[in-house]
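Quick one:
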Amino acid sequence: MKRVITKVVVPAALVFTTLGVGALATTPANAVEKSHASTATKTWHGTVDKVNAPMGSTESFSMTVHMKVYTVHYDSMTHWIMGSKANLKKGALVTVTGTLSGTTIAAAKLSA
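Output:
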Protein backbone atom coordinates (compact mmCIF):
# COMPACT_ATOMS: atom_id res chain seq x y z
CA MET A 1 0.00 0.00 0.00
CA LYS A 2 2.85 2.41 0.83
CA ARG A 3 4.40 1.77 -2.60
CA VAL A 4 1.16 2.73 -4.37
CA ILE A 5 0.90 6.00 -2.42
CA THR A 6 4.54 6.83 -3.17
CA LYS A 7 4.04 6.16 -6.88
CA VAL A 8 1.03 8.48 -7.03
CA VAL A 9 1.96 11.23 -4.53
CA VAL A 10 5.62 11.83 -5.53
CA PRO A 11 4.99 12.40 -9.28
CA ALA A 12 1.99 14.62 -8.46
CA ALA A 13 4.15 16.69 -6.07
CA LEU A 14 6.81 17.05 -8.77
CA VAL A 15 4.23 18.29 -11.26
CA PHE A 16 2.91 20.95 -8.86
CA THR A 17 6.43 22.02 -7.89
CA THR A 18 7.48 22.30 -11.52
CA LEU A 19 4.38 24.33 -12.42
CA GLY A 20 4.96 26.63 -9.47
CA VAL A 21 8.56 27.33 -10.46
CA GLY A 22 7.51 27.80 -14.08
CA ALA A 23 4.89 30.35 -13.10
CA LEU A 24 7.42 32.26 -11.00
CA ALA A 25 9.99 32.21 -13.81
CA THR A 26 7.60 33.67 -16.39
CA THR A 27 6.53 36.66 -14.30
CA PRO A 28 9.85 38.59 -14.43
CA ALA A 29 10.23 37.79 -18.14
CA ASN A 30 6.91 39.50 -18.88
CA ALA A 31 7.97 42.57 -16.92
CA VAL A 32 11.20 42.79 -18.92
CA GLU A 33 9.32 42.55 -22.21
CA LYS A 34 7.11 45.48 -21.26
CA SER A 35 10.09 47.66 -20.35
CA HIS A 36 11.78 46.97 -23.71
CA ALA A 37 8.74 48.32 -25.53
CA SER A 38 9.37 51.76 -24.02
CA THR A 39 12.94 51.91 -25.39
CA ALA A 40 11.93 51.96 -29.04
CA THR A 41 14.33 53.36 -31.62
CA LYS A 42 13.62 56.96 -32.65
CA THR A 43 15.23 59.55 -34.95
CA TRP A 44 16.21 63.12 -33.98
CA HIS A 45 17.34 65.99 -36.23
CA GLY A 46 19.30 68.87 -34.72
CA THR A 47 22.55 70.81 -34.49
CA VAL A 48 25.77 70.01 -32.65
CA ASP A 49 26.39 72.23 -29.60
CA LYS A 50 29.60 70.73 -28.27
CA VAL A 51 31.84 67.76 -29.09
CA ASN A 52 32.89 66.14 -25.80
CA ALA A 53 36.26 64.53 -25.10
CA PRO A 54 36.42 60.75 -25.79
CA MET A 55 35.97 58.47 -22.77
CA GLY A 56 37.57 55.11 -23.55
CA SER A 57 35.97 53.64 -26.67
CA THR A 58 32.81 55.79 -26.35
CA GLU A 59 32.60 59.30 -27.75
CA SER A 60 29.81 61.84 -27.29
CA PHE A 61 28.49 65.23 -28.30
CA SER A 62 25.66 67.52 -27.25
CA MET A 63 22.94 68.41 -29.71
CA THR A 64 19.94 70.74 -29.64
CA VAL A 65 16.56 69.61 -30.98
CA HIS A 66 13.75 72.21 -30.71
CA MET A 67 15.16 73.94 -27.61
CA LYS A 68 15.99 70.61 -25.89
CA VAL A 69 19.60 69.54 -25.34
CA TYR A 70 20.52 65.86 -25.65
CA THR A 71 23.83 64.07 -25.14
CA VAL A 72 24.55 61.55 -27.88
CA HIS A 73 26.88 58.61 -27.18
CA TYR A 74 28.41 56.65 -30.06
CA ASP A 75 31.22 54.14 -30.53
CA SER A 76 32.88 52.05 -33.24
CA MET A 77 29.70 49.95 -33.66
CA THR A 78 27.63 53.02 -34.62
CA HIS A 79 26.71 53.01 -38.31
CA TRP A 80 27.56 56.22 -40.15
CA ILE A 81 24.96 56.71 -42.90
CA MET A 82 26.52 59.88 -44.34
CA GLY A 83 29.63 61.77 -43.24
CA SER A 84 32.03 60.82 -40.46
CA LYS A 85 33.03 61.96 -37.00
CA ALA A 86 35.34 64.52 -38.64
CA ASN A 87 32.14 66.36 -39.70
CA LEU A 88 30.98 66.75 -36.07
CA LYS A 89 31.69 70.41 -35.38
CA LYS A 90 29.76 73.05 -33.49
CA GLY A 91 26.72 74.15 -35.53
CA ALA A 92 26.75 71.12 -37.86
CA LEU A 93 23.40 69.58 -38.76
CA VAL A 94 23.11 66.00 -37.54
CA THR A 95 20.59 63.15 -37.66
CA VAL A 96 20.71 60.55 -34.90
CA THR A 97 18.80 57.27 -34.72
CA GLY A 98 18.92 55.45 -31.38
CA THR A 99 17.31 54.92 -28.00
CA LEU A 100 16.61 57.62 -25.44
CA SER A 101 17.28 57.32 -21.71
CA GLY A 102 16.56 60.58 -19.88
CA THR A 103 18.45 63.14 -21.97
CA THR A 104 21.03 60.66 -23.28
CA ILE A 105 20.70 59.08 -26.72
CA ALA A 106 22.57 55.83 -27.44
CA ALA A 107 23.21 56.22 -31.17
CA ALA A 108 22.78 53.30 -33.54
CA LYS A 109 22.99 55.38 -36.73
CA LEU A 110 24.48 58.82 -37.34
CA SER A 111 24.50 61.22 -40.25
CA ALA A 112 26.51 64.44 -40.12
